[in-house]
Amino acid sequence: MSAFQVIGDPVLHSKSPILHRAMLDELGLDYPYTAHVVKKGELPAYLAWAEDNGITGFNATMPHKEDLIPLLDGLDDSAARCGAANTVALRDGKWLGFNTDGLGCLEALKEAGMDPAGKTVLVLGAGGAAKAVVPALVSGGAGRIFVANRSFPRAAALCVRDESHRLTPAGFDPDTLASLAAQSRLLVNCTSLGMEGTPSQFGDFSFLDALPGGAGVFDLIYHPAETELLRRARARGLNASNGLGMLVWQAVLALEIFLNRPLDRSEMAAAARATLD
What we know:
The protein is of the alpha/beta class. It has 2 domains: 4-99 and 250-274, Rossmann fold (3-Layer(aba) Sandwich); 102-242, NAD(P)-binding Rossmann-like Domain (Rossmann fold, 3-Layer(aba) Sandwich), CATH 3.40.50.720. The chain contains 11 helices and 12 strands. The model has no long low-confidence stretch (mean pLDDT 95).
């Protein structure tokens, strides 16, 4: 019998259990999927506990995506490339790491009318989420990609991995963000700024005024459903979307990994999305 979880801190607000149960029900599989709080530094103990308690796969959210990498027995290309894992499966006694965030984000962007192909993109953040999303934007045909982060060296470290020479690291000050936004047709927020339950918020939204008309603003955050970034983007007439679509698509891809077989992705996405209506 298989059993799945999502781990993180905080994580009890996660919609992942609802989405996965809906998809498992659609498949006629009575496998449990629960949320489990695991604090930073507790991953080694959790992996031992999970194996002893019949957990055969789990999703990981903040703050674990990067911390998992050195603890796993193997990584697929998606996790190795971005240095972060959001999906882990137990196969033949080994914990294997995958990352479905990037492809999930790409599918969600297309669904929201924000296909990055041929567009200049401004990415906010250079952490675990950005490390998955940025390579997906490259593979999705985006043109130039600016990666803005409060720690410039961290942004530079992410950009230096890319062989396409389309990535440019940048700072996070208002003037820099405004200058980059003026050149971009799509802005993707990969930071936790605006997430419910976290103290950090955007201090300045003036960069939104620099985005050209018709530009898209995609926020990976989905709790709350409308962040202040999205509210202000919509007030400016910009196309704005939260991370629920990405959550759905990365969950579909994760379930394929847990079950180790291909699924009808459109059917699974429809079942998962129905729980959000």
